[in-house]
Structure formats: structure tokens, C-alpha cells
Automatic annotation (TrEMBL), chain A:
TM annotation in the entry: 78-96, 130-152, 188-207, 219-240, 246-271
Keywords: Membrane, Transmembrane, Transmembrane helix
Protein's name according to its UniProt entry: ABC-2 family transporter
UniProtKB/TrEMBL annotation, chain B:
UniProt protein name: Uncharacterized protein
Amino acid sequence: MNRYLKLVHMEIHRFRYILAALLGLVAVVQWGALVWSARRMDAALDEVEKFGRYTMYINELSDRKISYAEAIYNAQQLYILSVLAVIGTLCAYLLFVWYRDWLGRSTFIYRLLMLPSARSSIYLSKLTAIVVFIIASLAFQALSLAIGGVIFEVLIRGDRQGESYFVDIVNATLVLQYLMPLRLGDFALNYGLGIVAVLVVFTGILIERSYRWTGIAYAVGYVLICAAAIVIPINVMGMYRTSSYLYTAEIVGIELAIILFVAAVSIWLGFRLLRRKISV
Amino acid sequence: MKRYWLSIVLALFGVCGIAGYYVFGASDELPAFKLTTISGDPKEAEPLQITAQYENRIKLKYLYLTTKGSRYQPDEGLLDRPRPSWMDYPFYRKLLKDHRGFMRKKTVDSSLYVDEKRLVYADVRSETDRADYTIILDILDRASEETLHKEGTMPLPELNNWTIVSDVQVRGEDLHVLVQKSVKLRTGNEVRYEYVDHVFDLTGKHKRDMKLDFGLETPNNSTYFIYRNGEVGSSEFAGFWSQEQQQSEADFDGTPYWTYRAYTYSYDTGRITQVGDARLEKPNTPGYMYENWLEAGVFYTARSDHAKHSLEVERHELGTKRKHALTIEYDTLGGKELQSIRITAGRIYLLLSIPESEEELLVALDVSNGKVLYKGKISAEDGTENVMDVNQDLRPVRIDYNY
């Protein structure tokens, strides 16, 4: 356990500057976009008050108030870009978290594989580190929204501030709706599926590392089979058709069993490859 | 331990941040509404559900309002399936619970017949450009839980475009499956719509067919089946209404008038009877509403007169052939414009806008004499003073009745 925690810490420590840079990027882009959007809307309101001229930001239907959610909505492209930058980097790091150990002159993987503890700790520590990066990024996104609310209140004078509901803020950008769904159940499902996808990719990487050139084909095949095993039954069982033979609870139960099976196979295979087959 | 502060802080920050997000999200919900009584018996509004739209420039959301409160339609997640709204009615939920096996794949309420003895579900399997279609019958004996499954192919003189089941009824020893078809004429690309009553016995053996001829004269006509108000048990009649475009009758700007007619078809006699008089109308007038209902052997027609701010309701008792007419003036009820109407369970339910207000008025009237039994309005649930501000974003669209 101690060795596993040390490995987790090591993985987090290795990514700390990249993570800090990503979160910094989110803060700068999102708060900057908010300031730009809120000021533009505020200026548009000034024009309405002075000259009665309506713009695309403040139209005749408006109650001459601007809300935090609207300010985000009008700058959503920049919010989406900043979030995509984080998602893209984390996806790339899924591969790099393994391959960096093989890179360089003094191959680090030698040292990891020679540790006097179960090799499964290496697999689990990398998985845990990725999960920590994801939840920390999500928490920072939530914090960014909260701080954005304060920035908005500072920027826009009180009588112009319209009410913003939490639901509206989340719905203001397409990316937040998927990234941080409003229902906790959806969050658990989305990220549970995401973790299974990470397990499949990790095992794919280990297959490639174990069999090298032919391993690439095996790894791609493995990932495709796992994806098909999860996606095809959803269509076959008619999850998104009204007239399917199975009831929702039954389809969800079967699908959950398949997902758990894929996760279990990926972990088992990953551990087995690390223990017996991996080559340096 | 000190060495690991970064990992510990990062993990704690992540967990606390996400927990905080959901705790705050649960406490900051969109405004809640409910139906509150102005006058009359509050029980009159208990079976009702108002479907409304809430829009505040970010997103349009549907919500469902009752006397108990409101419920927003949740954003679709991975586990949300398309689901017909009738499956939420308590009556059908009980049916799904009691006959779980039989109700599999049975998702169209007009294909389902329910009485104390049996459940019947009729489905159609059809392919475009084929000269036949198949009727699939599932019959459940509720006492013995025995099911009967039968399939029968029906030939078509033309090519099939699409076919749906409009109604299923058991009358004595006859099982009627009323089918609406769109057929492609062999002479060209034209399509024709028609209704056929396929009659089977209770063992699923095909007995006869009855093609419904409404005798409409013009080619520019459409005939629509009037779906039932969640009615359970056998009904002698099926209801229809038709609209025919009258090319000869047009406005100065060329806008055509339409003739509206209502009909009943008797499953017992096979006779089609026109209900009430034909009406020449200009349907694209703002606020125009023409709706029909058939329930428990009574046919209702409601037609709004936008200029007079009133509603005419005709009530035809099909058995006795008696006709009653009512005129409801909105201003006598305290309303201005008609937003929605529903006639069911011996009541006329109206949703009216209130003059110089953003609020909506719900009125329940006795269908037999027009007596006002209930008046209510949509209020913010927390009783906030700026109800009007909040209600500006709320637009009721439909009255539903929880059968």
C-alpha cells in the first residue's frame, strides 16, 4: 500500500507543472473571456440607456439586465476552447504516462519494474494519478465558475445584474453540460465509463509494449473489441428506441455487467502483462 | 507525510470541489411553481398536469405543474430513453407493473385495448412499396395470464407507404383493429390515405374488413382519427374530423377557407355518421382553435372565436343523438386569450391568459351546463412577490389529465 501511494505521488509530482499550466490557462482564458463579455454587454446596455439603440447582446426583449449565465453564454467559445485544451492534454498524457518511462537514456521503467512490490501497483498508481488529475481539473472548473460569479458582480453594477440560476450557468456552454452534468448519477456514469476507457487504453498500451510491432495491431484490436462490446449491445437492445423488448432497468443492468466485465478483463490482462510479458 | 502534501491537497481539492459543486447545484434550482386555487373545489385541479415552457434566454426547459408543485424535465443523460408520455399515467404504470411480460414492446397507447377480462395489443409490420402488410395480435386473458399471438397478412391493391394502428376495440365477440394507411397509387407518385376496420374473432381469426368512406368530395382533404382520452373499456364509436380545402372560397389575399366536419364510425353497425354541421373556417386566423374529443359515447367539439373572445362547445350524445351547445366568454371568467383547452371526465378545462398580467388562469367548468367549478392560477411556489418577473419566462402549453 505504502509503495502504491509513493508511486501515485511520484506520478502526480511528474505532472505538476503541466497541470498547473493547464489550470492557469483555464483561469486566464475563462476569466478574461468573462471580463470581455460582461464589459461588452454592459457597454451595450449603456447604449440602450443613452440612445435607445439595441444590439445583438441587448435586444428589445431584454429586461435591460444581464446575468452571469448570459455573460458566459456570449463568451462560450473561449470557455469551450480552454476546456478542450485540458481534455486534449489529459488524453495525450494517457499515452505519455506510460511511454515516458521507456523514453530517455536511463530508461525509468527498469527501475519501476525492479521495485520489490507487486507490479500491479505501477498500473494502479498511473490510473489513480489520471483520476486525481481529472477530478482536480473538474474541481478547478467549478471553482473558476464560482470566482467568475464574483468577478461578474464586481464588474456589473447591482441594478443591472439579472438573476442567474445554477442550471443556467451550466447550460450556458455546451461543454459544461457534458463535463459537469447536473445530475450526480449522470456524473458518476460518465466518469465511470471514462475510467473504464482509461483501463482499456492502459491495457492496450501494455499489449503494445509486450508484443511491440505486432502488439500495435493487438492493442488496436483490443480497444476496438472493448468499444464494440460496450456500444453494440446498446444498439442491439434498443436503448434509444421506444419499442425495444427489454425495459430500461434490464438494459442498464446488462450494459453495466458488460462494462464491469470489460473493466475486469482489462485490469486482469494489464496486471498479467505487467507481471509476465512486459519487455524493456 | 510532508513529502506528499501536493498529492493530498490535489486529491482533497478534487473531491471537495466536486462535492461542493453538487451540493450548491442541489440548493440553487430553477424557480418552482404550482397550481393554486382562487375559487372552487381544489380537488377539481388534482388530476391535472400543466405542461409549460420555461425560457430565460439561455435554454428552454419543459416543466410539469400540478397542485403539488412543479418538476422540470431533466436534461437527457446516457440512461434516458425516449418514452411515450402515456407511460407516466398512473393507470398505465399499474398495467406495466401487473402485466410486465405482456407489456414488453407495447409502447403505442392507441394499439392497446384494456378491459376487465383481457388486454389486446395490435401492431402492424409494413414495408414501403410492398403490396401487403401484417397485423400482429397479442391477446392476454387477465384471469389465466394466458397469451395468444396471431399474425395475419393483409393484401393491398396498391403499394404500401406506411400503415399504423389507430384504434383497437372489442365489441361482443369481435375484435376490431382500425388501421390508417397511406398507399401509393400505381398510376403515379400520388399517395392516398384511408382507414380500414379489420375485424377478427377473439381467437385472432380474420372475419372481415370494412373500408371507411367519408364521402369527401375534394381531393385536398385530410381525415384525422380522434384519439381517446385514456378511456378504458369497450367503445362503440371511433371519432374522426376532416378538413377540406375550398379553392372556390378564398380571401381577397388568396388565403383559402377550409370546411371542417366531424364524424363517428360505429364498430357495431359499420355506419359513418356526420356529427354536427360542417363549418367553413379560415384556420390561420391568430388564436383559432378547433378541437374534438370522444369520450364515453359523447362527442365534443370546441371552436374558438377569436374576435368575440369566446369558445363554442358542442356536446353530442351519440346514443340518444341529443345535442347541447355552450358558449363560454373568456372575460366572464376573468381571462383574455385562450391558451389551451381540454375536455375530459365531464369537465372543460381552460387555460386563459389574464389581462395585463403575465399570469395564467386555469378554469374547470361542468361540461353539461358550463358552471364554473374551479378557478386557479400558476404561482411561484415560494410565494415570492415578484411572481410576474418569474412568470414572464413561463409559458403554459398544454393541459394533461392523469388517468
